[in-house]
């Protein structure tokens, strides 16, 4: 009876090892996909949002200057703050653009802003017209994007090497770009 238990336990553990080996092969593919998606998203954030925001902030460097009051606070870096100021004899309430600082300021805080003379609703804090936090976030998200894309490349090489090793263990070897073991594998070049 002890030999039956040993045989059963042995068969169960080998089947568990086969399941674990299959799970180990999917982790590099999942890492590859996740790294690729994160790299592309961070690249898009940097290239499509933060760099244009930094350029917009810089465009207001020579704008009209005014003293303003924080009218509505929120996530200023995401463009959810408003300021109130006088321009051309009227009171203007305008949104601060994406990439603005001052998110920790409370409503009623005083600040200096720069705005376009022909459109006073295009405004930025004077401290941000050099590019502000948008430049920092553009560089950080761009760097993180490159890192994740590099990890994706490494993971792709790892997955390809694992796949080739598995194929060789099954008896298939690539020769002249073809598999000659009777499997339905595609040529390596396609």
Class from helix and strand fractions: alpha+beta
The ordered H/E elements are: HEEEEEHEE
Assign a percent range to the helix content.
40-55%
Strand count: 7
Q: β content, as a range?
A: 15-25%
Distance between the termini: 55 Å
How do the strands line up in the largest sheet?
A: 3-2-1-4-5
Shape: rod-shaped
* Tally of individual helices: 2
Q: Low-confidence runs (pLDDT<50, min 5 residues)?
A: 6-11
Biggest sheet statistics: 5 strands, antiparallel
**Rg over C-alpha atoms, rounded to the nearest angstrom:** 29 Å
Mean pLDDT: 78
Any key phrases for this structure?
rod-shaped, 190 residues, alpha+beta, 2 helices, two-stranded antiparallel ribbon
What does this structure look like?
With 190 residues, the protein is of the alpha+beta class. Helix content is 51%, strand content 21%. The chain has helices spanning 2-59, 132-169; strands at 64-72, 82-87, 90-95, 110-116, 119-125, 174-175, 178-179. It has a five-stranded antiparallel sheet, with no helix packed on it. A two-stranded antiparallel sheet has the order 6-7. A hairpin with a 2-residue loop joins strand 4 and strand 5. The radius of gyration is 29 Å and the shape is rod-shaped. The two termini are 55 Å apart.
Give a brief description:
With 190 residues, the chain is of the alpha+beta class.
Structural topology:
Layout: H1 2-59, E1 64-72, E2 82-87, E3 90-95, E4 110-116, E5 119-125, H2 132-169, E6 174-175, E7 178-179
Antiparallel strand pairs: 1-2, 1-4, 2-3, 4-5, 6-7
Helix pairs in contact: 1-2
